[in-house]
User: What shape does this take?
Amino acid sequence: MVSPEQVNTSTNVNRLLAGLTRRDREQVLAGCTRVVLSGGMILVEAGEAMAQVYFPIDCTICLTTPTETGIQLGVSLIGYEGMLGTTLSTGIAMLQVRASVQEGGGAWRISRNKFMLLLATLPLLRRRVFSYLHLSLDYLIRKSVCCQFHLLEARLAYWLLMVHDRVDEDAFELTHQMLADLLGVRRVGITLAARALQSRGLISYRRGTITILDREGVIAAACTCYGVTEAAYERLLG
Assistant: This one.
């Protein structure tokens, strides 16, 4: 468990919780445990009920759905801006996607029952969770259009920016095969797209590690989807 004195350090920040009043935030964190999640760890399988809710601090959680070929297709990415467990605000505990840790790091974890009680007693928490759920749905709609109409290189740049936004470093571990699975394309396509970004000096790739060298250049290379949901987040959640 944590004490109020531990709440305000920069290493403990989750933006969804940071927007609460100090009193509400302390009440939420009093029921949380700070955990370290390892990359590749599966938190919930598709079709399972969530027993725990997670508020990432410096880790990323990837939501994927299985395909007929056995590949886990990337659906969304959760970092310190959000949480895993938004559907509990609608009374639904069953998760229709797999939730696994992409980039290891810290997170706040709270049991489903404790979280449901807090939702019932803290109106501001409830509003922020509903707002984040709305943004998540908006992202899924935009992503379905993106997959149909935007070039792979631009989609890859978009996904890399999403990861970069949620980690504290310019370098992160992502293999070409992982990216191919997440974006639902063949590995050779990712290799060519990553090579194109690298040849322009925007990223470097070595032994499963991608480094962002020129963030503004990657933004320019990304499809127009990037920035839309992020701007909406600032408007709704600050």
